[in-house]
Specification:
five-stranded mixed β-sheet, 176 residues, Immunoglobulin-like, 15% helix, 2 helices, 2 domains, four-stranded mixed β-sheet, mainly beta
């Protein structure tokens, strides 16, 4: 009876490995998805984050070029809000449509061009990093942008260094 149970377990395990419907190819991040697609032998047990935005464009794609993808607020006391407007140009031949702009943490908020951007025209993504309550030290905040572009994901950055000390709430901008 032991041998029969053992054989049954082995048969079930082998049959599940050979059933393409039972294999789940998923990823926790776009880089893991790209790595799994490029190297399927390395994707031993990938998983999907059901809350992650799709990074696959549907329909025509275009390209975008940011004037700058990084804003450095320098060295400042913790407390103020740092605001930056990232401008981009649709450098492709199709209308550019931003589907998602997602800050990496709750201390950063965003606004962006909601309407399609015609080829050759400009759009924007505005980010505000609230440093109130943040600990001192170097800070790097990211904003993930998903659009009908190739590649579909762009990453913007806000960086700088916070120092100790209270400072009144102000909005510090870079001139935009």
């Amino acid at each position: 009876m032991k041998y029969l149970s053992l054989i049954l377990v082995i048969v079930l395990a082998i049959s599940c490995k050979n059933d393409p419907k039972s294999t789940t190819a998923t990823a926790t991040s776009p880089s893991e998805a790209a790595n799994a697609a490029a190297n399927p032998q390395n994707a031993t047990n990938p998983t999907v984050d059901p809350n992650a935005a799709s990074t696959t464009a549907t329909g025509p794609t275009t390209t975008m070029k940011f004037d700058s993808d990084t804003y450095d607020f320098g060295k400042a006391k913790a407390g103020p809000k740092f605001k930056h407007r990232y401008e981009f140009t649709n450098t492709g031949n199709e209308k550019l449509i931003i589907s998602t702009v997602k800050p990496g943490c709750g201390c950063t908020t965003t606004d962006y061009t909601k309407e399609p951007v015609e080829p050759g025209k400009k759009g924007f993504i505005e980010a505000v990093f609230n440093s109130e309550g943040q600990s001192s030290g170097p800070k790097i905040k990211t904003i993930n942008v998903i659009a009908n572009t190739n590649p579909p994901q762009s990453v913007l950055m806000i960086k700088g260094e916070l120092t100790d000390g209270a400072q009144p709430k102000t909005i510090k901008t870079d001139g935009h």
